[in-house]
Design a protein that fits this description.
Structural class: mainly alpha
Order of helices and strands: HH
Largest sheet: none
Radius of gyration: 35 Å
Distance between the termini: 96 Å
Strand content: under 5%
Number of helices: 2
Number of strands: 0
Shape: rod-shaped
Oligomer: single chain
Amino acid sequence: MNRRLLGGGALLLVVGALTLYGVNAVIRVSHLRREMESMERDLVMLRARTADLTRTVDRLRTDPAYIEKLAREELGYVREGETVLKFPKGGAAAAPAAAPTR
């Protein structure tokens, strides 16, 4: 009877260990799947960004009008003889709000 009890206990111990290992493996696989999905989303975003940058590089190499546009917008360049009008940003020149009436 003692051997039977010892064999049953050993079997129970092995089944318990395998169950814990299996649960741990399922949790790890689930975590790895979520991580893989996140990386796939990042990859799609990075590929779109790469395509956008490639188009920009191509335009910079071949499109003088695009280069002029960037120089005007980002660097403030103007052609000779042009007049530049600068307006204040925000509501500095905006009319004050009317006071509430009672």
